[in-house]
Specification:
The complex is a heterodimer. Chain A is of the alpha+beta class. Helices cover 21% and strands 35% of the residues of chain A. A 4-stranded antiparallel sheet of chain A has the order 3-4-5-6. Chain A has a two-stranded antiparallel sheet with strand order 1-2. The longest helix of chain A has 11 residues. Helices cover 21% and strands 28% of the residues of chain B. Chain B has 23 helices and 51 strands. In chain B, the strands form 14 sheets. In chain B, strands 9, 10, 13, 14, 15, 16 and 29 form a 7-stranded mixed sheet that branches. In chain B, helix 5 packs parallel to helix 6 and helix 10 packs across helix 12. The chains are: A alpha+beta, B alpha+beta. Chains A and B meet through helix 1 and helix 2 of A and helix 18 and helix 22 of B.
Chain lengths: 94, 952
């Protein structure tokens, strides 16, 4: 399985460490009204069959965090972007 | 009559005689033989004993599917169990042993199980060894394991080398028969990178033994010409002796190349096996088809083999299994065997067999008309199963085809396709055309040469019901035709259940020969169709792969890298005993003559607390954090505040996970407004670094901050004890250290020994007046030696992590035992560190009810009431007098140490409501040793609770 790191090029999957669903955003508020959001952010995850955005750390390469779009059914990898670009893209959608 | 060598023919070199031994007896064969062909030629049909009934067994196949002829190959550390004699290339000096027999292959006591076979039916183990329950582990299981076993592993280390390698190609062709050769040629001529892999020692597949005619020459000659052309092309890699064992994500194929299994000892610098990961743009499965046995009485008697194996041995190895050979076939391919054997002058004839008579060899066959015919070997063909395994490794299921009576490979997309008989093309011209079509990646499809065709027809016939003798479905597991209907009657009618209940299709051959027959018999027993029953799941590995190949070079000292600190050599000079901590080697204690670890560590503690000690703390994680927003960044990472820390000061920090549990702790110092140096625990150094990267890049990318791991760039040592300052003053440049220029928690850049840059931190884990000195890594050893010299007057000692650990337990400082992934800051008695003025990782979740519940177990000190008692980590704490039970459990001891200062065993513990229970006497229960004792709960700081010693 190969992943094309935006910084390093195409590299084997063994160089990466995965860290779960990248879709949830960390809440910015820390007041008691946001407790529900925090609970969702920390604990609730979808478990989709199909395309999913996942955090991946290129720990054996540039040490940058990426978001890899992977099909959980086939393990096909569609894209890998720097996490900053992903977060900015998500912000634009809102 | 047993097997013998034919006078002429075969791809063997009769001028090269090879001597070998089997079960201690000397035999010989020729170059080009396999162990199986050489044994048959030597008249040795009996090669093994069956798994359950210990029945005499001979070879059934001439290839990878062999279930019976499993041997222990080689000796000593090179011994390999369960090796298929059909796949072992003969070499001079080869030594092999039969398996699963006692005392010998010819006279096996285990065969008495055959006499009692009526009780050894499917599910026998489950039915018989149910009770008494206590007998299972001690009596039944060891007995069963001894009686029903395969080969045994060597107890010696394997002296040979194994390698791992990667390869990339546009076209991977698996199998080098007619379809594979055409596919490889088509790909090769279009200029793309082609890998042609075949599990056989010699490329050519079925063309090495079948009589074919292609392009006006023999199939063998045509194959040799194609192989020669492929070998001459720079874009083609030929990989004989290479089994593709698995298909993985991203069209990656796992393969094992048996580089030097065909010689006694691999040549110098040559590995025995090489484990490949092949990245293929497209792959063509041209692995051919497996011939199925027919299920009839005595179909396992040595001398019974598949029809194709029979002609394989005759044509390729010039070996006959017998002189009079009955051929039992349900399809047209059996005729080839009759024709080929007759051409070698053997008496081969068609026969509808009901039972084969004979024990260690075939004596006669009873035919369907009741007559009895003399024969000394039997060839059988129950049809052909395309070798679909690899294409099903990622979850797809094969598809039943009624016309061919076979499962065909599923459509798994254009990246991986089957060709030739693996795709159900059982006629030669179709194989060649299919290979050419599948191997052509671009342009016009390669033209197919003319060839002589034979039609294929089959009349399904799985099971001869009139048989009186045992009729085997799965040879390797001794599963018979009667076991499957029995499993169905007892409710195990799903193929996956029937497999496990009867063991059909398990063990090293994974049912390559027997599975389709088993499915057909189960279908009949349950009144379902074959596709309704379906197959079991195909998984890697296609054939067994040795642990050596999987481990590759990563064994012994190469298993993982060893990290040595810059002070390693210094510690060795001081006589250190080292302990592995992750990858690190840390100095654990520094014994003097006759001291055990406890005596040494105790002496080191006493010397440090009364004078001065030097400890290597270089393994602590060190992260350099710089930038305008460095302070803000640390505020987010730690639950306490760092942006307010004064330049030149250090502060203890506590890092939480986002769920509110403590992740790590350490001291972080501010060297300039925009420059901090963070320390982490040794164990979490890498994790914390990744955490920083994540928090910054994913959550707070707007922060202007950079961070670099500098763990290996700095040697760091603790200098602790009442004489620490005097010691350091001997090496420090300029003004002597005092409480004004270097107060408690100071962090300074200094120079030592006449100009060497260093960082000095007045921090203490031991509880003593102490410093940590960091110097560039390469100077670590020299500086440590200088400090030892400077401290000689104060009787300085080196101390290791054992003494360090004792001192921190005496002081009640938390470490790994308490930072165990279940504790909150409050549990550790550090709740006040949690800021309420800022967001930080873990803040919100740390405030949840369950995490601030006063019932939670929190850190306390513990000491035994009877000073002679020894506390043990992991012991549970109960209210005095309570019986040990889950309901009564109040907590447990996390760390213990013998205190040389207080002369008792001390501990730290996690105890429910702990902080309100100081002074209470609790029951300590050590369930491992069934020991009870009483102990008193106290504050964590056992020694110098006022911290007066920090300032002496």
């Amino acid at each position: 399985m190969l992943i094309t790191c935006p910084h390093c090029g195409t590299r084997p999957v063994e160089e990466f460490i995965f860290n779960g669903d990248a879709a949830p955003s960390r809440p910015r508020k820390v007041d008691s009204d946001s407790a529900g959001q925090w609970f969702e952010y920390v604990y609730l995850r979808d478990n989709p069959k199909g395309w999913m955005d996942e955090y991946a750390h290129h720990s054996g390469g540039c040490r940058q965090w990426l978001v890899v779009t992977r099909n959980t059914g086939t393990h096909e990898v569609k894209a890998a972007v720097a996490v900053g670009d992903y977060v900015r893209g998500k912000a634009k959608l809102k | 009559m047993t097997g013998f060598r034919l006078d002429r023919g075969g791809l063997i070199d009769r001028t090269q005689k090879l001597d070998f031994s089997f079960d201690g007896a000397s035999h010989s064969g020729f170059a080009g033989d396999t162990l199986a062909s050489a044994l048959i030629a030597s008249g040795r049909q009996l090669m093994g004993r069956s798994f359950k009934y210990h029945r005499p067994r001979g070879v059934i196949t001439a290839g990878a599917a062999e279930p019976n002829a499993l041997v222990e190959l080689r000796q000593g550390g090179r011994k390999e169990a369960n090796t298929r004699a059909t796949m072992i290339e003969l070499y001079d000096g080869l030594v092999a042993q039969s398996q699963n027999r006692w005392p010998s292959l010819d006279f096996d006591m285990g065969a008495i199980t055959s006499l009692a076979s009526s009780i050894f039916v499917a599910g026998f183990y489950y039915k018989t060894f149910m009770w008494p329950k206590s007998f299972w582990e001690k009596i039944y299981e060891p007995l069963i394991r001894k009686a029903a076993g395969l080969g045994t592993a060597s107890q010696e280390a394997d002296p040979d080398r194994y390698e791992k390698a990667y390869s990339h190609c546009e076209l991977l062709v698996i199998g080098s028969g007619p379809a594979g050769l055409m596919a490889a040629l088509a790909g090769a001529r279009s200029g793309v990178r082609v890998i042609l892999a075949d599990e056989g020692a010699r490329l050519g597949g079925s063309l090495l033994f079948e009589n074919e005619e292609i392009a006006g020459q023999s199939g063998f000659d045509w194959a040799q010409a194609v192989i020669a052309e492929l070998a001459s092309m720079s874009n083609v890699t030929l990989m004989p002796r290479t089994t593709i064992f698995g298909w993985f994500d991203g069209n990656v194929f796992g393969a094992v190349e048996r580089v030097a299994d065909h010689v006694a000892i691999p040549p110098h610098n040559i590995p025995r096996q090489r484990y490949w990961r092949i990245f293929a743009g497209k792959a063509v499965l041209a692995a051919g088809a497996e011939e199925r046995p027919i299920v009839f009485g005595g179909n396992d008697v040595p001398g019974v083999m598949t029809a194709s194996a029979m002609r394989h041995y005759a044509n390729r190895y010039a070996v006959a299994a017998g002189q009079n050979i009955a051929v039992f076939t349900n399809n047209t391919s059996g005729q080839r065997t009759i024709r080929d054997l007759q051409s070698h002058g053997l008496n081969a004839f068609a026969a509808n067999i009901v039972d084969v008579k004979g024990r260690k060899g075939v004596e006669a066959a009873v035919l369907s008309d009741g007559s009895r015919v003399h024969c000394d070997a039997v060839a059988m063909s129950g049809g052909w199963s395309p070798i679909v395994s690899l294409m099903c490794h990622r979850g797809a299921r094969p598809v039943w085809n009624d016309t061919l009576s076979a499962f065909l490979p599923p459509d798994v997309g254009p990246q991986f396709v089957a060709a030739g008989s693996a795709a159900g093309k059982f006629v030669l011209s179709d194989c060649l055309a299919d290979g050419a079509a599948k191997g052509t990646l671009k342009g016009k499809v390669l033209a197919t040469p003319k060839c002589r065709d034979e039609t294929f027809e089959i009349t399904p016939m799985w099971w001869v019901k009139q048989s009186k003798g045992k009729a085997f479905v799965d040879y390797q597991n001794d599963a018979t035709a009667k076991d499957l209907p029995l499993a169905a009657r007892e409710g195990y009618n799903h193929i996956e259940l029937a497999k496990r209940y009867t063991t059909t299709g398990m063990a090293t051959d994974q049912g390559k020969l027997g599975n389709v027959n088993a499915i057909a018999i189960l279908a009949e027993a349950t009144g379902k169709s074959i596709p309704e029953i379906g197959t079991t799941t195909f998984r890697p590995f296609y054939t067994p792969v040795s642990f050596g190949a999987l481990a590759g070079p990563f064994c012994g000292q190469h298993f993982q890298p060893v990290r040595k600190t810059p002070l390693h050599e210094w510690a060795e000079e001081q006589g250190a005993v080292f302990v592995e901590t992750g990858l690190w080697m840390r100095s654990a204690w520094f014994p003097q003559q006759g001291e055990d670890w406890l005596a040494s560590a105790s002496r080191e503690v006493l010397a440090t607390r009364s004078g001065v000690g030097l400890c290597d703390v270089s393994t602590l994680g060190k992260i350099d954090v710089q930038g305008k927003d460095a302070g803000r960044f640390l505020d987010i990472l730690y639950c306490n505040t760092f942006s307010t820390l004064a330049v030149g000061k250090a502060r203890y920090g506590l890092m939480l996970r986002e769920d509110g549990i403590v992740m790590d702790d350490g001291t972080t110092s501010r060297l300039a407004d925009d420059h901090f140096v963070m320390t982490t625990t040794t164990a979490n150094a890498a994790k914390v670094m990744s955490h920083l990267e994540f928090v910054h890049q994913a959550h707070f990318p707007e922060l202007d901050v950079t961070y670099t791991s500098v763990t290996e760039q700095w040697a760091q040592m603790a200098i602790a004890g009442p004489r620490a300052r005097e010691t350091l003053n001997k090496i420090i440049d300029g003004a002597a250290l005092d409480d004004v220029n270097t107060p408690y928690m100071a962090a300074r850049e200094v120079t030592i020994l006449g100009g060497m840059s260093a960082r000095l931190f007045r921090i203490s884990f031991s509880g003593e007046h102490a410093y940590e000195l960091a110097v560039p890594a390469d100077f670590g050893g020299g500086v440590a030696r200088a400090i030892m010299q400077a401290g000689a007057a104060f009787r300085i000692v080196p101390y290791g992590v054992e003494a360090l650990s004792i001192m921190r337990v005496e002081k009640g400082h938390v470490a790994g035992g308490e930072l165990n992934g279940t504790t909150t800051a409050g549990d550790l008695g550090l709740g006040k560190m949690m800021s309420t003025k800022k967001d930080y990782i873990g803040r919100m979740m740390a405030g949840r009810g369950g995490l601030v519940d006063p019932q939670r177990q929190c850190v306390v000190g513990i000491r035994p009431l009877d000073k002679k008692d020894k506390l043990r980590s992991g012991s549970h704490l109960l209210t005095r007098g309570a019986k040990p039970s889950l309901a009564n459990d109040q907590g447990y001891i996390t760390s213990v140490a013998w205190s040389p200062m207080l002369k008792i065993w001390l501990g730290l513990a996690l105890l429910s409501h702990g902080r309100t229970r100081i002074g209470e006497v609790v029951q300590v229960y050590d369930g491992l040793r069934n020991q009870h004792m009483l102990a008193e709960i106290c504050k964590p700081a056992h020694f110098d609770p006022e911290n007066a010693r920090l300032h002496v």
